[in-house]
Amino acid sequence: MTTQYLRQFSLIVATAAGAGLELGALRCTFSIRRGDIQTPNTCDARIYNLSANTANKIASPEFTQLQIKVGYGSASNLALIFAGSLKQVRLGREDQKDSYVDITAADGDEAYNFAPLALTLAGGAATPTSAVQAMIAAMAKEALASPTGTPGGQAVSSGYIPPLSSNAPPRGRTYFGSCKDELRELAANNDCKWSMQDGKICLIPNTGYIVGGDPVLITPATGLIGVPEQTQNGLGIRTLLNPALKIGQRIQLQSSNINQYRYGLDTLSTAQQKFTQAVLSTAADGIYYVMRANHSGDTRGNDWYTDLVCLSVDAKIPTSAVEQAAVQPSGAVPRY
Known about the structure:
alpha+beta; Thrombin, subunit H; Elongation Factor Tu (Ef-tu), domain 3; 3 domains; three-stranded mixed sheet; 7 helices; 20 strands; 18% helix; 38% strand
């Protein structure tokens, strides 16, 4: 995405059936938090100066879904940055001139919190792939059944699933409990983690990334803002708002300047310094994995950013660092 002016915005509040209101032409502010962890992505949006009738309609139980898209140039270039279900709607005023409707939404919240699992797979058929698909089907059914008592939950489907082991135990396998807990255990047993991305359940390898497509190029010409900064959590990068930056995918950073992290001087920090340096290592080829992608914007203001937290895809922990820090075996760096 090299052309990043004439920004476009769409915010739709809709019913479970898809009928909704397009509010992108009004002044809207938003903050979207996305990550590669199983906790649902969230969004806070504020829409200004709606009519009393429209504001009350949004606050009614009829509307359950929120969708936000952004783009540049023409409306045909809009791309999704958030899809979720409404958790709370609040009406208020900033002053005597400006009223607002605040919306808090979550991605896949019903399926995450309320989907139970009672599943038995026959011996020879209980492969990780078949188990994952059965769990996704259970979560999708529960979401549409609306366990919260609202008219309808957010639709859930299968997203990126890497190749998993094809080995199946000779005996049958029973899964019982919360769907999210069983899915977390299955993902951990296959060296993956799972997350919900715009209603799609994704599994990403702990030391890998979503395969397919070229990395998104990040340079000052394509929207890089300021200087990338090493932090305790990874490499922090700010760009102009870019819907192409997805969780679990790769980026290619072309910047000769990266502000380095300051390590502590205490005994523990000194012992773990080499380990931390490996975790926070910068990639020689500029290829990084996206762990966090937080979008924020104001359709009538200057805010229009994507803030990334990334990890080098080829980060390695030297054996000497493990001996000093005694943290974990050497090899590729797991993200959690």
